[in-house]
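Here's my example:
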Amino acid sequence: MADVLPHRLEPLSPEHATRHTGLACESQLRVAAATLRRTSENEVSATTVVGVLGADDMSALQRLLAAIQQEFDVDARLRLYIGSFSVRFTRRSHTA
């Protein structure tokens, strides 16, 4: 069931050449950022994704998060644990 939802929500994420990093968590991260971006501030203020990460996947995850932040205009805070991670996406504050 956990793998079905990201595929159903895949249309939320625009097609980009930078996709498909090989990380299993990519679609979940993109869906979370797209959901935050496409909802009003009153509906969703932040969202968190938790996943498993191999030691050799760290640089790919960091590149992916940088691309997602730019693509969806959100901030991402990465926290690392032994063998896992969490990413909290929040809206960027655009002050005049």
Remarks:
- Residues 48 and 88 are 4 Å apart (CA to CA).
